[in-house]
Amino acid sequence: MNYRHHFHAGNFADVMKHVLLLELLELLGQKDKPYRYIDTHAGAGIYDLALAPAQKSGEYLDGIHRLSQLEASVTRLAPPMIQRYLELVEKLRSEKSRGWYPGSPWLALQQMRDIDTGTAFEMHPDVYDQLRHYVYDRRLGVHERDAYEGLLAVIPPKEKRGLVMIDPPYEVERKDFPQLVELLAAAHQKWPTGVFAVWYPIKDRPMIERFEKKMMKTGIRRQLICELCVWPDDTPVGLNGCGLLVINPPYQFADRADALLQWLFPQLKMSENGGHAAVRWLVGE
User: Fold this and answer.
1) How far is CA 12 from CA 9, 142, 149, 183, in A?
2) pLDDT of residue 54 exceeding 80
3) Is 41 part of any known ligand binding site?
4) Residue 167, annotated ligand binder?
5) Architecture of the 5-283 domain
6) What 3-state class would DSSP assign to 198?
7) Kind plus residue range of the DSSP H or E element containing 220
8) pLDDT of amino acid 98
């Protein structure tokens, strides 16, 4: 996978990640107290799908483009957060042009309240410059910094409540993602009440099973797995599906996430047979 997110912007995995991100922030915002949103690999913030990177991969055609082509009678029956997500995509496109797609920092800011704050890390200088240009907001602090070092330096935040979204490029996070396991264990130790959401690709099921076993061995409680696999596990394509591991999910998130993924799966699946959408506890209370 090319680490530049522009190549993958708007694909089925982005749709899944962004819908679940919005749901997590919605639930965090139900309490009166402020929260902190931390994006460890923020990217450029928004993306022009008409430019070469997105056009070269064409991945958005099987993601946001599919949803955008659905009849209004179909989307009206979608769960509320699907509708909210599609409304936000349209909001960005009305401000820019039809070819644009939002990244997680932009979407998070739409969901955050005035009392909430955010921290975004991006270590690639040119992408960092784009992020500062495209996503300027007084609530969001943007840092040109390596997330593996930066995250541990900013938690726990003064708000004491919040969400960390971790979506690395998976260049160094090979095999069963040992770097991620180490980071999550250290971060959870510093901020045991924080909500941590980790997006990861699913290409090789045995590798994912090893990752899950490593996470179970950390001793961290309340680990929820959300999966959307648009191809059967044994299909030899670049990306069969994706997962979101959520530590300390808010109350009701598991049920809401399942409803969201069950609606998305038939809209985004690439094969008549196989594939799945599922939400399950890896580790309970």
Assistant:
1) 9, 27, 30, 26
2) no
3) yes
4) yes
5) 3-Layer(aba) Sandwich (3.40)
6) strand
7) none
8) 86
156 preceded by a cis bond (ω within 30 of 0): yes
State mean pLDDT over 129-145: 95
Return left, alpha or beta for 76; rule: phi > 0 is left, psi -120 to 50 is alpha, else beta. alpha
Task: Say yes or no to pLDDT of 227 above 60.
Answer: yes
For residue 277, CA distances in Å to 1, 39, 57, 152, 212 come to 22, 25, 24, 32, 17
Contacts of 257 (CB under 8 A, 6+ apart): 20, 23, 224, 226, 246, 249, 279
Q: Is 233 annotated as a binding residue?
A: no
Query: Which among 130, 119, 157 is positioned nearest to 40, based on CA atoms?
Result: 119
In this predicted structure, what is the pLDDT of residue 2?
A: 41
pLDDT tens, residue by residue, 145-192:
999 999 999 999 999 999 999 998 876 656 779 899 999 999 999 999
Going by C-alpha positions, the residue among 153, 163, 187, 50 that lies closest to residue 107 is 163
| Cα(246)–Cα(264) distance, integer angstroms | 19
Catalytic residue selected from 14, 167, 234, 255: 167
User: How far is residue 194's CA from residue 249's CA, in Å, rounded to a whole number?
Assistant: 9
For the chain, give every domain's residue range: 5-283
- State yes or no: 104 annotated in a binding site: yes
167 labelled catalytic: yes
Share of the chain above pLDDT 70, in %: 96
pTM: 0.95
